UniProtKB/TrEMBL annotation:
The keyword Membrane does not apply. This is Class I SAM-dependent methyltransferase. It comes from Nocardia aurantiaca. It comes from the Bacteria. GO terms for biological process: methylation.
Length: 271
């Protein structure tokens, strides 16, 4: 099967891809990502015959994806000359969903093996560059044009990095560009600590390496960085409006547990 060569954290791409593909089967999807379904069919030829059950707990991830898309669209509408750094892109089809104008230069970065798989599943396009590198080896930044506004998107990536690496990444991006928006998601400290017991992460032999109870405070890492806002995930109105009834009930129950509603925080900064 294509993708069998992925190891550890790289395998988490399949979790989020499946969530997006199943969303696309809903009568009124949250994201409506046809590319995710197409990629799932290529990766798993039996995808259409599989029984996935009616519960869709992965929809919280789809809400996260939609939030990042909405924030990116609004930044690009105001900054049509921007450079986009989509870090830890996995197999996400954001560049195709957003379809930015030719004035935007878009960079998708992930480990080389993930990028190779991406190239087999998703088509090339103009003003779009793939970078196969660890995000923590910051030499990739030398390949990005400077002097333009930057949009940095890191969806489902930051928890897999150490706090030291997140800090180096954020401060290096702010130092490299005149202005921009940085959007990502983090997990709470309890979720970071407990992640070594999470069955889905154990299955892929990975875990989280950082967590923040107050992600807004990360703005203190750089004098030019300013916290903007946070979007809901596990209790988001779109999830409660569009998820199947049994999934909504599960989230309502889960959200009664302390710390659950804010176990993942989707946050936006500007500079
Ligand atoms: C949970 S997946 C999210 C993928 C994608 N952002 C999405 O939302 O569909 C995490 C991704 O981060 C990538 N990743 C983790 N650590 C990385 C690193 N140090 N450098 C580059 N990519 C990394 C993994 O390979 C994987 O593609």
């Amino acid at each position: 099967m294509p993708g069998a060569e992925l190891v550890g954290v790289q395998k988490t791409v399949s979790l989020v891809l499946k969530a997006k593909a199943l969303d696309n089967r809903l009568p009124d999807p949250i994201l409506g990502d046809k590319y995710a379904e197409q990629a799932m069919r290529r990766l798993d030829p039996d995808y259409d015959n599989r029984r996935f059950g009616t519960s869709q707990m992965g929809l919280a991830v789809v809400v996260r994806t939609k939030t990042h898309d909405d924030w990116a669209r609004s930044f690009l509408a105001d900054h049509p000359d921007a450079v986009v750094l989509h870090l830890g892109c996995g197999l996400d089809a954001r560049v195709y969903r957003i379809d930015p104008p030719a004035t935007v230069d878009w960079y998708d970065l992930d480990y080389p093996s993930v990028i190779e798989l991406r190239q087999r599943l998703l088509p090339p396009r103009a003003h779009y560059t793939l970078i196969g590198s660890s995000v923590t080896d910051l030499t990739w930044l030398d390949r990005i044009p400077r002097g333009r506004p930057v949009l940095m998107i890191a969806e489902g990536l930051v928890p897999y990095l150490t706090e030291t690496d997140v800090r180096r990444l954020l401060t290096s991006v702010v130092d490299a560009f005149p202005a921009g928006q940085i959007q990502f998601d983090t997990v709470a400290v309890w979720a970071w600590r407990a992640s070594k017991w999470f069955p889905t992460l154990r299955k892929y032999d990975t875990r989280f390496h950082c967590g923040f109870n107050d992600p807004a405070a990360l703005a203190d890492w750089h004098p030019r960085l300013e916290y903007v806002d946070e979007a809901p995930m596990n209790d988001s109105p779109v999830l409660m409006a569009k998820a199947p009834a049994n999934t909504r009930r599960m989230f309502r129950l889960l959200n009664l547990l302390p710390g659950m509603k804010r176990s993942t925080r989707i946050v936006r900064f500007r500079f």
